Amino acid sequence: MAITEGRPLNEPIAIIGTGCRFPGGASSPSKLWDLLQNPRDLSKKIPKDRFDVDAFYHPDGSFHGRTNARYGYFLDEDPYAFDPSFFNIPPTEAETVDPQQRLLLETVYDSITAAGLKMEDLRGSPTAVYVGLMQRDFLDSQNYDLDALNIYAATGTAASILSNRVSYVFDWHGPSMTIDTACSSSLVAVHHAVEQLRTGLSKVAVAAGSNLMLGPVPFISASKLNMFSPQGRSRMWDVGADGYARGEGAGAVVMKTLSQAIADGDTIECIIRESGINQDGKTAGITMPNASAQEALIRQVYERAGLDVTKPEDRCQYFEAHGTGTPAGDPLEAQAISQAFFGPRQRLEGEDPLYVGSVKTIIGHTEGTAGIAGVIKGSQIIQHGLLVPNMLLNELSPRVKPFCRDLEVVTKHQEWPALKHNQPRRVSVNSFGFGGTNAHVILEAYVPCVDSPANGPSSSSAISPCLAPISLSANSETSLRATMEDLARFLKDRPETQVHDLAWALLKKRSNLQVRYTTQAKTAQGLWETLERDGALVQGKQSIATVSDLKLKPQVLGVFTGQGAQWPAMGKALITHVPYAYDIVSELDQSLQDLPAQYRPGWKLLDQLLLEGDASNVHDATFSQPLCCAVQIILTRLLQASGVDFKVVVGHSSGEIACAFAAGFISASQAIRIAYLRGLTSKQAGNPNGQAGAMMAIGSSFDDATELCELETFKGRITVAASNAPESTTISGDLDAVQEAQEILTDEGKFNRVLKVDKAYHSHHMAPCSEPYRGPPTFGHPHLWTT
What we know:
The chain is about 35% helix and about 15% strand. It folds into 4 domains: about 1-275 and about 285-445, Thiolase/Chalcone synthase (Peroxisomal Thiolase, Chain A, domain 1); about 470-545, Alpha-Beta Plaits, CATH 3.30.70.3290; about 555-685, Malonyl-Coenzyme A Acyl Carrier Protein, domain 2, CATH 3.40.366; about 695-760, Malonyl-CoA ACP transacylase, ACP-binding (Alpha-Beta Plaits). The protein has an 11-stranded mixed β-sheet with strand order 5-4-6-7-1-8-15-14-9-10-12. A 4-stranded antiparallel β-sheet has the order 22-23-21-24, covered by helices on one side. The protein is of the alpha/beta class. The chain has 26 helices and 24 strands. One of its GO terms (molecular function) is 3-oxoacyl-[acyl-carrier-protein] synthase activity. Keywords: Oxidoreductase, Phosphopantetheine, Phosphoprotein, Transferase. This is Beta-ketoacyl synthase domain-containing protein. It comes from Diaporthe helianthi. Pfam families: Acyl_transf_1, KAsynt_C_assoc, ketoacyl-synt, Ketoacyl-synt_C.
């Protein structure tokens, strides 16, 4: 029980990512929202590529081997189209994998991508998977020819594998189970995911459903129970309702406990306040719903949430009903809703009716996916604050009308009802299976606290990515090009998109796939124009995509420079545009201000880094050394925050200080103090005879440079300070000797450039400052010296 210690038993659950595939081109939550706002009749005759329905049709559904249903709601996409390589499934095995499994894998991937979770970060984690399933058409078709079954037949069609395949592909080690309670399957899956998260045994849980109509068997069997609408329409509560119309679809929601989602800075779409399941028990028939059981469940779920269904402020403002359009189910559900929320009481003056509706009137009854479909719709209307219309309601059924005194079916667009008593937007989602398993979920809007890190990179302590690259990846050049086209299309539709927010999301919340593309842009228009131009170059000999081996983690080498590479106002753009960089400089300034008074600088790093032109002190050693160190600390920490870790670090001269910080041997505070004290003591550097010092980069080998310095005229005056490359060396020493050497090198036609430093580092000029630098006080920093 230690797992749940200190954890609320009924802590709200955050939905942080959603994926879906529904009829009408609703291949994402945003496209589903577009469809919900502008619903249209999507019912159509069963396509020939599924099966020839005319060969099985008879107007009398009870006729042997026949169905009276010829219509349904179908996905626009090919249910057999699948990229097995993306999920590391051999093509020969993929052929025998139920398309419902294939569709589910794609939808779950969409959901974790929407949640901003990386596949590589979730591998090996106790992530839980609960999947709702009702039909198994592909199994029926496979069993037509038993001699053709191959080694993959069992794992390709088993119900258990529907969820297990997800866990296997993504390498998740939490509970993994497929749930079949018929039409309520996926909402029951949501409930179990909620329960699992509340135990603390899983940090992330995925609830999903998948449903495809591939063969005639379910049509024929359910026709015997008079379940289907011969018209092929799900007319919730309408006088003309004559059964339900089947629909295809898949949906997945990614969840965490609310506290975990807030701590992780996740985008929270809405929260699940409470969930519950129960059973009808003994009724007039096993397929006959039980209004009393549904009413009891609604009351129980609200009670567990600490809500009183009899109080207007505690009930939901909208109820997503099961609403299949069956003559038996609709009146009993209407009765349960009315009795649960109103019972014998009269609606108060000014109290809004309870608005009801069902997504099934638009996309059909997606059976094992129906509960998830209701949750996704509920989440969307909560996020947008708008109630969207049902379809197919011409006149209330006389069997439903008695329960609609306080209920109102939404038939047109309308604003969310006025919220009173600090209510959140609240939605109930109801679902029941034809065997009597009922499920109910309460959704609510998430209103973040002012100081909550959730919902993006707005925190001043978070990395603000205005200067970060736009990075996209895919598993093939074809997929990468499609991704670029999708993003360009998105930006055209939403020109107000903040590029820095987009860059942050792509950098921190997208999995790294094999084929990658990187660019930069300042505006949405600039980015979509770049994507369109570069997208045409992705495939072919001019491809600008790079391919990496995901099995090998890139090994990054960090090289830290010494003096001579600095310039006025270096780092200004970072500090003024990236709050995280500003915070780092402020921390470093505070460390220097905490030094004893006699050593404390009378200036600040922040001010000095912002000075431009002649006002800058960046070439004065007292300032340049801590300023260069500070900028390199900023860059290192920004890279670390972006997930870039150095495998090896190399420091040059005073760059050894920032190098030691990057290697983890000293803290940022210790590094800046060492650099500051090094610059402070360098004031004492110089030639005893008063000769000024200088340094010069030359295009010579180490041996040639050494030979030059050992000439009689230069001996004791200049020395080799650094061997940078086979033909790149730095010499250091007396200014007049450096100038004389420059004349010789120029005459010989060799590269030479005097460095912008005022000290002759790595030479005899440093001897006077060595003792003060190595001696006390240390102010808490270790003994680390550079010359």
